[in-house]
Amino acid sequence: MLVTSKELLLDAQKNDYAVGAFNTNNLEITHAIVRAAEAKRAPILIQISAGAMKYAGVEFITMIVAKAAREATIPVAIHLDHGPDFKTVMVALRAGFTSIMRDASSLPFDENVAEVRKVVEACHALGIPVEAEIGTLGGVEEHVVVSERDALMSDPDECARFAEAGGFDFLAVAIGNAHGFYKGEPKLDFDRLAAIRSKVSIPLVLHGASGIPDHQITRAVESGICKINIDTEIRDAMIRTIQKFTQENPNQIDPRKVLAPAIDAMQAVVERKIEIFRSAGRA
Ligand code: 13P
C-alpha cells in the first residue's frame, strides 16, 4: 500500500529499527526492491532522485513506483531523494510523491533553514513529511585533519537549532558517512550521533550506507537512526550481474533473460539490508 513516510519512521523510532530507503531508476530496480520488502514483510521507502527523474521521466518513474506501491501488501512511501530546489519538490508533489527531502545543506545555516521552511509549508499543507540535512556528506576522508573533519560533520547544537527553526520531520546527519563506496573502512562518529540524538527528538536519517560494515549499521540503528539510504550496493549488484551474465552468455540478446538474474541479485541485497536494519517482519 502507498503511504507517507511519517508513520513509518515514527514506528521505527518507537521500536528501535530503521526503515530502508532504496533508490530506483527503472522498472527492474523497483521490482527488486518491492519483492525483497514483500519477502521480508518490511515497510520501505522507494527513493527517486532528481537524476532519476531526468533519466526516466518524472511521470514514467512515478507511475511505475506508485503502481508497485499500491499493489504491494507492505507499506511503501515514494520519497524525493536530495530535492535540489523548490521547483523539483513541486514537480514531485504533483507527480504523487508521498515523502520529500529538500537538501539545502550546502547553503549557510540561515539559508538552509529558509529553503527548508518554504518546502515544509507547502508539503505539510498536503500532509507530506519533509526530510532536511545539515553538515557535509562525503569528502570526509581519513587524511583530513581532525578539526576539518569535525567542521564538515553535523554539529549537535546546530542540529537542534536547525530542527527547531526548520519545522521539518526527519533530520539527515553527516557523521562520517559518504555517498558511493568508501576508500577505506568508514568510521561513523557514534559520540556525535549520541550527542545529536540527545538534542533532537525527530527521527534521524543515515545517507551513504552502502559499504558501511554491518556492525556499524547495527550500532547506528541502536543509536537512533530510523531511515537508512542504500543506492550504490544495488547498482553494483545489478551491473556486476549483467556483466557476468553477458560474458557467460554472449549470444543472449533477450533483455528479459539478461535482466532477470540482475533483479534477483538486487533483491538479495535489499533483503540483506532489511535484516540488518531490523525492519523485517514490521509490516
Ligand atoms: P549510497 O549510494 O552510498 O548507498 O547512498 C545512497 C544515499 O544516501 C542516497 O541518498
What does this structure look like?
It is a single chain. The protein has 12 helices and 8 strands. The mean pLDDT is 95. Helix 8 (156-166) runs parallel beside helix 9 and helix 11 (232-248) runs antiparallel to helix 12 (255-276). Strand 4, helix 6 and strand 5 form a beta-alpha-beta unit. The longest helix is centred in the last third of the chain and has 22 residues, at 255-276. It has one domain: TIM Barrel (Alpha-Beta Barrel). Strands 1-2-3-4-5-6-7-8 form an 8-stranded parallel beta barrel, surrounded by 10 helices. The N and C termini lie close together (11 Å). With 283 residues, the chain is an alpha/beta fold. The chain is globular, with a radius of gyration of 18 Å. The structure holds 1,3-dihydroxyacetonephosphate.
Arithmetic mean pLDDT: 95
> What order do the helices and strands follow?
HEHEHHEHEHEHHEHEHEHH
Q: Give the fraction of residues assigned to helices.
A: 40-55%
CATH topology: TIM Barrel
Shape: globular
Largest sheet features:
8 strands, parallel, barrel
**Which secondary-structure class do the elements indicate?**
alpha/beta
- End-to-end separation in angstroms reads 11 Å
**What is the count of structural domains?**
1
Counting DSSP E segments of at least 2 residues, the number of strands comes to 8
Strand order of the largest sheet: 1-2-3-4-5-6-7-8
Cα gyration radius (Å): 18 Å
Spans of 5+ residues with little confidence (pLDDT < 50)?
A: none
Number of helices: 12
Bound molecules: 1,3-dihydroxyacetonephosphate
- CATH superfamily placement: Aldolase class I
- Indicate the CATH class: Alpha Beta
